[in-house]
Specification:
Chain lengths: 221, 260
């Protein structure tokens, strides 16, 4: 964990170099579930970033008053209250998208990314750096979500934000959609390919091998 | 056994020899169309083997031909070059080459490709098999068992369940034929099937049971689709079955000797 005090580094580190989804593999269940279209992915990203930033600020503000033994309960109460507010806002103003997201907005409460950042960073830092770090992590999460959502909607439906980009065969065009892209496994594949690509470009992200292969022995003649 | 004779390529060659009767009968009945499918599959698989040789120094293997044959025989028809290429690339790269090449893969790359094509493009019809082509699976299995390349216990386990289900009238003939071809081409692969004797029996029996279950309960599924889905699940279960067989063996030894 980078312990830099430079706010710019704190903000930009989680985008690629310390990305919470591709490096720490946090919060992937929502990343898999809500990325069938770009609109839901963006909404989810915004909701999570807002919740994460506010929760980090609140937890950090009262960090000297939280008893250590019940700190998780306190953090979850704060996060859950914020999630309920966001959920109500979505239901009031974006009813369509709120229905598409179904339970996943509520499940931000248990998103390991939110709890991980409040537990690991906000509890030990002043409110402003904590909120910057949380915002950066939210942006990193959003980056992955938007990428996966864009690829899935583009190849699964030939659309972006609901606007037709590739005309479908059914409607007189030429593009046959990959219906696999709309199923959950494709998000796993895309995420795996993304992690693979990232770690090929930035080899310092890959873990040390857990096993050393045995020495290669030449076949006895 | 001569020392140094048995390496990965020997196994691949013998497996290829075992598949020859099946491939010849299929090509004879399929004509130029079948030849074109096989050519495309071989080309795509070979290119990926070449890419991984140049990028990761993974030795290419003759198993590329086996994978290509299985995909060409079982893939849905009328997919077109682009979709076939996509499906084959996905199966070969994600199913086999990223794990380090043939011999280190968890599932058969052909099974991965076929499942990808089946789930990704559900509108296309699966192929059927003429009787002579499906019967040619039997000499293929016999050659494989005689040379020790294909696990005999696995084939026997599947045959026992298949025979019992046929006698009980649970297995329609098209499903039986497709399941036989898929058993030889996809499941009886020495790399991804179970490796303990008990595990092999269970693996084969599980495949047979899954085929019976799917053909009875999966409405609207083509025979080959049933066989491919059963092969995918059965090969995913192979390590578990092996582990169960080992645990049983260790427990039996503990009971007999009082220690491990």
């Amino acid at each position: 964990m980078a312990r830099t005090t430079d706010p710019w580094r704190t903000l930009t580190d989680p985008l690629i170099r310390q990305n919470p989804v591709t490096l720490q593999i946090l919060g992937i269940c929502s990343a898999l579930a809500v990325t069938t279209t770009l609109a839901t992915a963006v909404t989810m990203s915004v909701a999570l970033t807002v919740v994460l930033t506010l929760a980090a600020g609140l937890v950090s503000a009262i960090r000297r008053h939280i008893p250590d033994t019940i700190r998780l309960i306190v953090q979850i109460v704060i996060v859950a209250s914020l999630v309920i507010v966001i959920d109500q806002v979505l239901q009031a103003y974006f009813a369509e998208i709120s229905r598409a997201l179904s339970v996943y907005v509520g499940l931000i409460t248990t998103n390991c990314l939110v709890l991980g950042r409040t537990e690991a960073y906000a509890r030990h830092h002043a409110p402003l750096p904590a909120m910057i770090d949380a915002f950066g992590n939210g942006l990193g999460y959003s980056l992955v979500l938007v990428f996966v959502g864009a690829v899935r909607e583009f190849f699964g439906k030939g659309e972006l934000f609901g606007a037709t980009v590739l005309p479908l065969v059914d409607e007189g065009g030429w593009f046959t959609p990959l219906s696999l892209m709309l199923l959950a496994p494709s998000a796993f594949f895309l995420l795996g390919l993304l992690v693979w690509a990232l770690r090929s470009v930035l080899p310092e992200q890959s873990e040390a091998p857990e096993h050393t292969p045995p020495l290669r022995t030449e076949p006895a003649e | 056994m001569i020392r140094g004779l048995w390496n990965r390529e020997t196994v691949a060659l013998l497996l290829l020899a075992a598949y020859l009767p099946l491939a010849l009968f299929w090509l004879r009945h399929g004509g130029t169309e079948a030849l074109a499918r096989l050519g495309l599959a071989v080309l795509v698989v070979a290119i990926w083997h070449l890419v991984f040789m140049l990028a990761r120094a993974q030795a290419p293997s003759l198993s590329a031909l086996i994978t290509a044959l299985a995909i060409a025989m079982l893939a849905p028809e009328g997919l077109g070059v682009f979709r076939m290429t996509l499906g084959i690339s996905f199966g070969v790269v994600m199913g086999e080459l990223v794990f380090g090449g043939w011999g280190r893969n968890v599932v058969n790359p052909a099974t991965v490709s076929l499942s990808f094509l089946g789930f990704g493009f559900p509108a296309f019809a699966w192929p059927g098999f003429d009787d002579p082509v499906a019967w040619a699976a039997i000499p293929a299995a016999l050659i494989g068992m005689a040379t020790g390349i294909m696990p005999a216990a696995l084939l026997a386990g599947a045959a026992v369940v298949g025979a019992a289900a046929s006698l009980a009238g649970l297995l329609p003939e098209p499903v039986l034929l497709a399941a036989g071809v898929a058993l030889v081409l996809l499941l009886a692969d020495p790399v991804t099937s179970a490796t303990t004797a008990l595990g092999r029996w269970l693996n084969g029996a599980l495949y047979g049971a899954l085929v019976v279950l799917f053909s009875a309960g999966w409405t609207g599924a083509a025979p080959v689709q049933v066989a491919v889905a059963a092969a995918l699940l059965a090969s995913l279960a192979a390590p578990l079955l092996d582990d169960a067989a080992l645990a049983l063996w260790i427990a039996a030894r503990k009971r007999r000797h009082g220690r491990t």
